[in-house]
């Protein structure tokens, strides 16, 4: 059955791309252009992908769940940007140590 009539992409082809690692409609679009013309097939692609196991999706889910080993979110000190030391303005080069 055709999922994307604009590019002639079948459900079988979408499943093959998913088996090869494409876990989202955007990744499917990168692999075969399905969903990039009229967009009418994006929901059908989502339905084919479902919520099956996907290594990338599982990593993302773990990053979003606080308290897991893969939780990479950290609290920045008040008044500082994440990853920038207090008193250092982003984009301004530091003087060379002499």
Automatic annotation (TrEMBL):
Q: State the Gene Ontology terms under molecular function.
A: 2 iron, 2 sulfur cluster binding; metal ion binding
The lineage's top-level taxon is Bacteria
Where is the segment annotated Disordered? 60-98
Q: Where is the BFD-like [2Fe-2S]-binding domain?
A: 2-50
Q: Name one Pfam family in it.
A: Fer2_BFD
InterPro entries per the UniProt record, alphabetical = BFD-associated_ferredoxin, BFD-like_2Fe2S-bd_dom, BFD-like_2Fe2S-bd_dom_sf
Q: What are the alphabetically sorted keywords of the record? A: 2Fe-2S, Electron transport, Iron, Iron-sulfur, Metal-binding, Transport
**Which family is annotated?**
Belongs to the Bfd family.
Name this polypeptide is given: Bacterioferritin-associated ferredoxin
- Which source organism? Streptomyces atratus
């Amino acid at each position: 059955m055709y999922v994307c009539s604009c590019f002639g992409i079948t459900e079988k082809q979408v499943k093959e791309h998913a088996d090869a690692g494409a876990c989202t409609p955007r990744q499917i679009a990168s692999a075969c252009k399905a969903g990039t013309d009229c967009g009418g097939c994006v929901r059908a692609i989502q339905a084919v992908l479902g919520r099956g196991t996907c290594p990338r999706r599982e990593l993302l889910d773990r990053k979003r769940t606080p308290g897991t080993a893969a939780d990479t979110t950290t609290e920045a000190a008040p008044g500082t940007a994440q990853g920038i030391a207090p008193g250092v303005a982003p984009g301004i080069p530091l003087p060379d140590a002499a």
